[in-house]
Design a protein that fits this description.
The protein is mainly β. It has three helices and 32 strands.
Length: about 425
């Protein structure tokens, strides 16, 4: 997913290579390797790539390892697992939703599996799609959440695209704000956590990954919101973090029990929360604008807040600083502990994709297809590259194994096509 609106590849090597936070939040068993990007926001769920950096400059004719046409339309981010790059997509004419997998080395399409036909909502927001949630992988299975037939459905596939199970987890009938659905699922232990929030009925569920059997279910406020929940190790324990519905909250991922809740942000948010030590950060949204920092220890303390707005896009944390591109395209660097503005830089918006970090560099892409690459430095804005592919980008890129995977839209003469690009530093790859 991006915005609005899935050890045994030698488990020990994964533990040694991933940062400590990732170790704490990844109790999964499957074929997930250190060079995979298995779910929304990457291995540690914080937008940070493990290991090598990636190219900082590219164009349509340089540093493109391969490119391939993506059937249909969607905003789900590339899930990179084993030999596959996996996306959700939708055919708006045929009214089908599917999961499509490409070969990681060549970009060749390996398979495409239809997970639904018909039952599309009559209307969604023009910036949303019928395939916005990002696929989650556990190494042996792929999990896709989709909105159709006035409900949220979860489908499990094997790595060859075969359906293993499919389950309707509950109704989804937005009343006033018929903008669609976007929340990506969370793999946690033997379970899959899925959130659905709208102004008719809201809930969060945990399903057994092997069968789809319900493990727990909790109600959420009957308010519309679009953000994906996230699993974090914060304030000394694992927590599912959620913003939106006029509050920021933490939940026990094993039981669904609420741990704490603070009135903050706004009704609707689309970005995913981020964290630093015992602090969590959220931004929204609609109908008002607010960015907030809260202690996630249950004290309810709001540490700092401002009136900046990151509605569809998430923020990112590195080295004790929060980096964010606001809706108009202004990048801020805030000190995490007190919100002090270290610097700001006007780039270009609007923005829907979330930032990612590789090799200490931040990648931020706007809706027009330009990716700004700059140092994750609190000293000042240090730009390394400004790269444009296509002219419509909503999906967040994924970075792993030294390569960047980007889902890009090309609009021309009233027609639209999507392309999946694999971007690599080809000059560095050719050096001995």
């Amino acid at each position: 997913m991006r915005s609005i609106f899935g050890f045994s590849f030698q488990a020990l090597s994964l533990f040694l290579l991933l940062p400590p936070l990732a170790i704490a939040t990844e109790p999964v068993a499957g074929e997930i390797g250190p060079n995979d990007w298995p779910w929304w926001r990457g291995p540690a769920r914080d937008g940070v790539a493990v290991g090598a950096g990636a190219a900082v400059k590219w164009s349509a004719t340089s540093n493109i390892a391969w490119k391939t046409e993506v059937p249909g339309r969607g905003h789900s981010s590339p899930t990179v697992i084993g030999s596959l790059v996996v996306l959700q997509t939708s055919n708006e004419t045929a009214k089908t939703q599917s999961v499509v997998a490409f070969d990681r080395k060549s970009g060749k399409r390996r398979w495409q599996t239809t997970i639904n036909s018909g039952g599309f909502p009559a209307r969604i927001h023009r910036k949303n799609t019928h395939a916005s949630p990002t696929v989650a992988a556990d190494g042996t299975r792929l999990f896709a959440a989709a909105y159709h037939h006035q409900a949220i459905h979860v489908t499990a596939l094997d790595m060859a695209g075969k359906k293993l199970w499919q389950k309707q987890i509950g109704p989804f009938r937005p009343d006033e704000y018929k903008n669609g659905y976007a929340a990506s699922p969370i793999v946690h232990g033997k379970h899959l956590i899925v959130l659905a929030e709208c102004d008719d009925s809201s809930y969060m569920v945990s399903l057994e990954r092997s069968s789809g059997k319900l493990a727990w279910r909790i109600p959420r406020p009957a308010r519309i919101s679009y953000s994906s929940p996230i699993l974090a190790r914060v304030a000394g324990r694992n927590q599912v973090l959620i913003s939106g519905c006029d509050r920021v909250a933490g939940f026990d991922p094993d039981t669904g029990k609420g741990l704490w809740e603070v009135p903050a942000t706004t009704m609707a948010t689309s970005g995913t929360m981020v964290w630093h030590k015992d602090l969590v950060f959220a931004s929204g949204g609609f109908p008002k604008a607010e960015t907030v920092c809260i202690k996630a220890d249950g004290s309810g303390k709001i540490v700092w807040r401002n009136t900046q707005k990151c509605y569809e896009q998430s923020m990112i944390v590195h080295g004790g600083y929060v980096y964010a591109m606001t809706d108009p395209g202004i990048v801020f660097c805030w000190r995490a502990t007190d919100g002090k503005v270290m610097w700001r830089e006007r780039l270009a918006g609007p923005v829907s994709a979330s930032p990612v970090i590789a090799g200490g560099n931040i990648y931020m892409t706007n809706e027009r297809g330009t990716t700004f690459v700059f140092k994750a430095s609190p000293a000042k804005y240090i730009e390394l590259g400004r790269n444009t592919l296509g002219n419509e980008v909503f999906a967040t890129p994924s970075i792993c194994g030294g390569r960047l995977y980007a889902r890009v839209g090309h609009l021309k003469a009233g027609s639209r096509r999507e392309v999946l690009y694999c971007i690599a530093d080809t000059a560095a790859a050719s050096r001995p």
